[in-house]
TrEMBL record:
Assigned keywords, A-Z: DNA-binding, Isomerase, Transcription, Transcription regulation
InterPro entries: Homeodomain-like_sf, HTH_RpiR, RpiR-like, RpiR-like_SIS, SIS_dom, SIS_dom_sf, WH-like_DNA-bd_sf
Name of the protein in question: Sugar isomerase
Domain SIS: 124-265
Pfam families: HTH_6, SIS
Domain HTH rpiR-type: 1-75
GO MF annotation list: carbohydrate derivative binding; DNA binding; DNA-binding transcription factor activity; isomerase activity
PROSITE patterns: HTH_RPIR, SIS
SUPFAM superfamilies documented for this protein: Homeodomain-like, SIS domain
Region forming the signal peptide: none
UniProt organism field: Suicoccus acidiformans
Length: 292
């Protein structure tokens, strides 16, 4: 749930509700106001802001308004010229559709990049490269997206499996241990099956990385490391999951690159050596032919 949605959903006493209403109406500019200035504008007490912040899990007004500012900036950036749910219309020409999909993909990657934090990337890299086994938990459609990531990781020597069949996911979670790194992919972050698997993983001491939408959700708040999927699509009232799939692919590409770079020269030599040995493809296009 987004922070602004939490403010809308929470029940507050009359004095606090005055503040909440003002915050919701002036979210764009609220970061400029101190607690005393906001209280003066609404004829309330500054301590009410502290109580509101604590109800939402923040230390005080400064932390809350910074989080509100970051959320507002995210929601009002990147996707200004294209609709993630209906990126093209019935009257668009084929080339216009192609252009809009290209714009959508470009916006999605930039949007996802804006959600990444260096500390989260470093933590994810550590979890992946120190693990003795990696398990990817994903539903059917996300599992299809994740298969290439799993294949790439195997090619550079990682012990990794994909579990996209719900019944088997419980077994994989149950047999995890402190040397396991689990990646849980869920756009909503509220897949009850994966929430249960995550709880089992945590009980067994496994390290966990989540890929979910922004905002507080059951999976991201439980995971050790949380990476955010671009959050622009509705759950089902969309033409297709264009942006969420592109975002997940990008994040998995980043995770693969992070794992690869820890042993960069060794991994590169291994890929080239196995390619020479087993890749039998040929091409008449000089540009893509190997030099050797």
């Amino acid at each position: 749930m987004l922070l602004i949605e939490q403010l809308q959903a929470e029940t507050f006493p009359p004095g606090e509700q005055l503040l909440v209403d003002y915050i919701l109406e002036h979210t764009e500019d609220i970061h400029q106001l101190s607690a005393s200035a906001l209280a003066q504008l609404t004829h309330t007490n500054p301590t009410s802001l502290v109580r509101i912040a604590k109800k939402l899990g923040y230390v005080g007004w400064s932390d809350l308004k910074e989080a509100l500012r970051e959320e507002w900036l995210y929601l009002n950036s990147h996707f200004t010229a294209v609709d993630a749910n209906q990126p093209f219309t019935a009257t668009d020409s084929p080339l216009r559709i192609a252009s809009k999909i290209a714009s959508l993909e470009q916006n999605t990657i930039q949007d996802t990049l804006s959600l990444l934090e260096p500390s989260d990337l470093a933590q994810a890299q550590h979890f992946l490269t120190e693990a003795q086994e990696i398990i990817v938990f994903a539903g059917h459609s996300n599992g299809m997206v994740a298969r290439e990531f799993v294949s790439r990781m195997r090619r550079i020597g990682f012990k990794i499996i994909l579990t996209d069949i719900y019944d088997y996911s419980y077994y994989e979670a149950y047999h995890s241990n402190p040397d396991t790194c689990a990646i849980i992919i869920s756009y909503s972050g509220e897949n009850l099956h994966f929430v249960e698997c995550l709880d089992i993983l945590k009980q067994n001491g496994a390290k966990t990385i989540s890929l979910t939408s922004i905002g507080a959700n059951s999976i991201s708040t439980r995971a050790d490391c949380s990476l955010k999927i671009t959050t622009r699509e509705k759950l089902y009232s969309k033409i297709a999951n264009f942006t969420s799939s592109t975002s997940i692919i990008y994040l998995l590409n980043v995770l693969y690159a992070l794992a690869f770079t820890v042993r960069y020269e060794t991994n590169l030599a291994h890929i080239q050596r196995t390619g020479r040995r087993f890749d039998q493809r040929v091409s008449t296009v000089r540009l893509i032919q190997e030099d050797e």
